[in-house]
Predict the 3D structure of the following.
Amino acid sequence: METILQIQDLTVNFDGFKAVDHVNTKIEKGEIHFFIGPNGAGKTTLLDAICGRVKPKTGSILFTGGVDVTQYSENEIVNIGIGRKFQVPSVFTGLTVQENMELAAVKNRSLFSSIFHKTNKEQEELIDDILDTIGLYGKKHQNSAALAHGEKQWLEIGMLLAQKPRLMLLDEPVAGMGRAETEKTGELLKKIAKDCTMIVVEHDMEFVRDYSSKVTVLHEGAILDEGSMADVQKNQKVIDVYLGRGGERDA
Ligand SMILES: Nc1ncnc2c1ncn2[C@@H]1O[C@H](COP(=O)(O)OP(=O)(O)OP(=O)(O)O)[C@@H](O)[C@H]1O
């Protein structure tokens, strides 16, 4: 196993309140690693620290062995290969599926300059491959406003893939999806994880059971348990603070 991300003694404070409290964990290459736990446990804050949105009070986050991303800006973190998808889709609904992909593929953060930057042949091939992977090749010329909820989420995952990340952070990717879309998303994550490791925050426990390689349970900012879903769901403390309290219905 090769470690892609090592989180060491990570603490994030908001006005003295510890949202993340001395967290230590490792993400292995190729994993679909879920973070679960009750509302307010610190899951989103942890993702925010990895992608540079918040700066920790203590600790380090080592990416592929050496680089401490806590010292980097959000843009630098994207450029070294960590992509983040937020809960609310950020697809441009005035553009087609293909145009959204082109914007992402030219890798320019500014919409204005991206519009004037044509994609090259290599980028076109990459876009076609990704559209095939996310199941939207047949809809490439469709306006993205007309896509179903699940399809918009897949397009956004595709837009992240266009930046060729080695690690992808997903915040509640199946929220609002029906069972069929949820399963399709799980199969998509499995496909992607072969080349791009995944960290996923999720409240849908059926989805976590079906698609996780590893689960970290957070409670009040700290790690309560870690392991396979089969193992952590037997832990009485995890049942008491989350699973047994209908935590999965809180989303
Ligand atoms: N910018 C902020 N300023 C102050 N407090 C914050 C800020 N962001 C988060 N918090 C607090 O930190 C704690 C952890 O929040 P976080 O959003 O990380 O939890 P979560 O586990 O993702 O919860 P949920 O499952 O509800 O999304 C919460 O008590 C929240 O109110």
Summary: The mean pLDDT is 90. The first strand starts at residue 3 and ends at 14.
